[in-house]
Write a sequence for this structure.
């Protein structure tokens, strides 16, 4: 399973109200009403635990946390030596 697929599966299984939603990897999670700020923090926590990466306080932002794709890019960037 790709990083995007794993993050999407987490959202669909764990974020209240997201189970019946359809969204694209590049779609804004908060802007699209898929998750609220609390949901973003849940996804950050999942990503940190699942992939062994750490978000600094300044890195929890629109660039890294806007969409499934942006979370996946952050993981790949952090996993690259």
């Amino acid at each position: 399973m790709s990083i995007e697929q794993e993050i999407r599966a987490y959202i669909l299984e764990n974020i209240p109200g997201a189970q019946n939603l359809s969204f694209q990897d590049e779609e804004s999670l908060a802007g699209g009403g898929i998750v609220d700020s609390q949901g973003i923090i849940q996804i950050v926590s999942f990503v940190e635990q699942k992939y062994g990466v750490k978000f600094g306080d300044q890195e929890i932002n629109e660039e890294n946390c806007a969409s499934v794709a942006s979370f996946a890019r952050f993981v790949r960037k952090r996993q690259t030596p």
